[in-house]
Design brief:
single chain; mainly alpha; two-stranded parallel sheet; 2 strands
Length: 216
C-alpha cells in the first residue's frame, strides 16, 4: 500500500508542479482588479513605435507556445521539466510581487477601431487584457524563459530547425508586445532581462561552480 502511494505521489508530482504555473497565471489575473494608483510607464521611444495589428498574431500564439514548451518536457524529460517549471514560476512570482509593490500601466494603447480581422482580434484582446501591471512584461519573460529552458531537453537541443523557429517566435512575441502597444520598451527589456538573469542563476551558475570546484 505504501509503495503504491509513493508511486502515485511521484506520478502526480509533475501535475502538481504544472498547477503552480496555472496558479501564478490566476494570481496575475487577480492583480488586475485592485483599486490602486498606477505608475505610468511611457518612454519617448514608445511614441516612435507604430501600431501594427499584424503583430497580434504572435502575441496570441504565446498562449499556446508557453504551455507547449513545458508540457513537452513534462512527457519526455521529467527532470528538466521540474527545473524548468520552478524557474518559470520563480520569475512569475517575482513579477507579481513587483506588480503589488509597484503597480504600473501604459497610457498609449490605441482603440484599434476599424474594419478587418486583425483589428477585431486586437479589440477583443484589449477588452480582456488591461494595460496594467506591465513592468516587467510577463509576456516577454515567459516567451524568453520558455525558449531558453525548453532546449535543455536533449531531444529538442538536437532539433536545429525547431530551435531556430522557436528563437524567431520568441523574438516575435516580445516585439508584438510593443507593436500592438500593450507594453512599453521598458517592459520588454525588463521581462527579457529577468528571464536571462534567472536562467543564469538556475542553469549556468551551478555548472560554473562545479567546474571551479573540479579544477581546485
Amino acid at each position: 500500500m505504501k509503495r503504491e502511494m509513493k508511486i502515485r505521489v511521484k506520478e502526480s508530482k509533475h501535475v502538481i508542479l504544472f498547477s503552480l504555473f496555472i496558479l501564478m497565471e490566476v494570481l496575475y489575473f487577480l492583480t488586475q482588479f485592485r483599486d490602486v494608483e498606477y505608475n505610468i510607464i511611457h518612454l519617448a521611444i514608445d511614441d516612435a513605435i507604430p501600431f501594427l495589428p499584424i503583430f497580434v498574431i504572435p502575441y496570441v500564439i504565446w498562449y499556446a507556445y508557453v504551455p507547449a514548451g513545458m508540457l513537452y518536457n513534462c512527457f519526455t524529460d521529467k527532470r528538466e521539466f521540474c527545473k524548468q517549471i520552478l524557474t518559470v514560476v520563480a520569475g512569475m512570482a517575482i513579477s507579481i510581487i513587483t506588480f503589488c509593490l509597484y503597480p504600473t500601466a501604459v497610457d498609449f494603447r490605441p482603440t484599434a477601431e476599424g474594419d478587418g480581422l486583425l483589428l477585431w482580434i486586437c479589440r477583443l484582446l484589449f477588452s480582456s487584457d488591461k494595460p496594467i501591471n506591465v513592468l516587467p512584461s510577463m509576456h516577454c519573460y515567459e516567451a524568453a524563459i520558455i525558449h531558453l529552458t525548453a532546449f535543455r531537453n536533449e531531444n529538442l537541443r538536437k532539433n536545429i530547425p525547431l530551435r531556430v523557429g522557436s528563437a524567431i517566435l520568441s523574438v516575435m512575441i516580445c516585439l508584438s508586445t510593443v507593436f500592438i502597444k500593450q507594453h512599453s520598451i521598458a517592459d520588454l527589456v525588463s521581462g527579457v532581462a529577468l528571464a536571462y538573469i534567472l536562467y543564469f542563476i538556475v542553469y549556468i551558475l551551478p555548472d560554473l561552480i562545479k567546474k571551479k570546484r573540479a579544477a581546485t
